[in-house]
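Most newcomers find our protein records easier to grasp once they have seen one. Sequence and backbone structure share a record, each on its own labelled line. Nothing more is needed to start thinking about how sequence determines fold. As an example, a complete record with its sequence and its structure tokens follows.
=====
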Amino acid sequence: MKLMKLLLVLSGLLFAASAFADTTWVASGNVSGVWAASGSPYVVHTGDITVATGDALLIEPGVRVYFAGNFKLVVNGLLQAIGTESDSIWFTGDPSGFPYDSPTRWRGLRFMDAHADCELRYCSVTYSGATGAGALSYGGGLYCYNSDVRVSHSWIRQCHATLRGCGAYFDGSDIELEYTMITNNIATIHPDQYPMGESAAGFMASNSIVHVRHCTVAFNSNGGDVGGITVDMGTVITLDTCLIDNNSSIDQTIGGMRADAGCYVHMTGTTISNNHSAWGQIGGLQCRNVAELTMEACTLRANFTYNGSWGYDPWDGGGGANIRDPGLAAISNSVFEGHSCRLGAALLCNNTMVINSVFRNNRATDGGAIGSNGNNTLIGCRFEDNQAGIDAGCMSCDGDGTGGAIRFVQGTDSVFGCWFEDNHSIIIIWEESGGEYIEHDLGGFGGAMHCMAAASPYVANSVFVNNSLDYPDGNGSGSVLYNAGGSPTFEFCTMNDNSASGHPGGVIFMDGGALTMNSCVVSNSTASCAIFFDQGATGDIDYCDFFGISGVNFRGVPPTGLGTISTVNVNGDPCDLYYNIYLDPQYVDAVNGNLHLTGASPCVDAADPASSVLSDFDGNARPNGAYADLGAFEYSRAAVTDLVIFADVANGDATLYWSAVAGASGYEIYRGDTQDYEPGNSVLIGTTTATTFTDDDVFLAATEQRAYVVVVVMP
């Protein structure tokens, strides 16, 4: 038996020797010079090796470096490992037992106060790990302390660490990552072992400057903290055309990326997708107390959390991104789609500006696309097919199915020139019947928006189309807005074809609180009413148009005189005490989504003359006539281009001549005192169907001058 054991051992040694017949054996200690492919593989077999301060180690293409034990390469001097696309360089070790630590696991590349020209190009770093006390547990594949290192066209994979970056950890360093993949790195620690924020399976950076270009951070997994990237301690990170994909936090926190207090995060053309947290809060990105966040032309897609916290937490959510208390946060020209979580499936935020971005097909228990905690500004954004509902993919979460597109939780927000279409809110219960479970849709609260008591959003120049609570067993309220005691304001908004079929229904449902509506249009909707005033709700509803509601215009206890025709407005149309009209707005083509006004619309020139809104949804100036127009779109008036003016100074008259415009139903003549005509600074002095007009007795002194413009009126 002893002889057999001895033979087995000798056989193993012979196999190892034959496997490395052309091997360069590297003993522990200092290394320098050139490692060429002719000497490959280089086997580190007795202990750690070091490139000492003042020394340089150059590794040529095709070299394989194998660490035959728990040894590391420490770089205090200069390391340049420069491979090629067809002949890369490998740093690797024993893969057995991965991702768990083993006595033979090598300990990675460790740059400590290294030379400023260190570089890894076309390199692969695999099967390394960091464990032990202090910094020994940081950076499984790559650890950089107070070092400037460039890594390009490389692959860091299947590494692990106890803390601070399984793939890589950068501390006080200036790092460039280009065309590099950091994938399949795993942290096996449980969150009870170490405080959250101490680990990232992909890479982590502290007090560093990190430029990341055309890189992929994917399929990294953390047992108790961030799956992809963590930056903290004031790190400045730039992500340009990168992919952060399919990273996960197994037990809690964040799947994709986390940025902590004082950090600067700048993203351009970057995609954050398919990241998830099994029992945590955020799937894609969390920025908390960062100094600055900018995102330009980025895509956040299909990030999610399986579960949220028990009970209600206004910051538990943000499947795509969670942005809390930033110094500055600006997102532009970006897309948020396919996310799911507890609150604000695409974005949960405060103090954030979002411009010209799209939110579509997101699902949350509350706030299908956005959960707002105040002081956010949304400009020119589009919300399509978002849903709030208790079946929205967040299992075992408390929620109410509120706000198909946005839930305003607290604070003041501004929404300008945004489009809301096909968003809805739903509450589903499952009832056992005859051994089977039958789905029952109970409607929801706020097909597009939900406003809580501590919130006071201001919404202007925005469009709401086909938002709904329209379900067979529906009992929901507010196809556009359900207000739970808040103080929302709508100005120059168009709300058309929004459905709330169930009782009590309503396009807007006021469950207490105070509603301000000015110069809006609410039209052509299947609902019990346009506005339901309940629980002592108050309203300041002025200069609006209500038309085509399948029920009545107002229910509950509306303000006295609202809806009762008692006077006429500036156009001579019948209106109530608050100058609200109840006439067909005469859209250009509502069936096909064109909600611009025709020239015959009673909404033209019918807005509040005291309004300070200076442009419409399309960016056209308001007013573009004597007064502004109701709704999101100012009626387009084009001036004739061949106006000729004859001044009869002797008689004090001015006669205007112009050519007929095809299709015009008439012309409006405006007069001002300067050559720079603006509708708000000029006076409508007459209308005509002819192509000439005389302004009588206009010149009272020989030195006076007048400016004229003739506006084409289309039917």
Remarks:
- DSSP finds one helix and 80 strands in the chain.
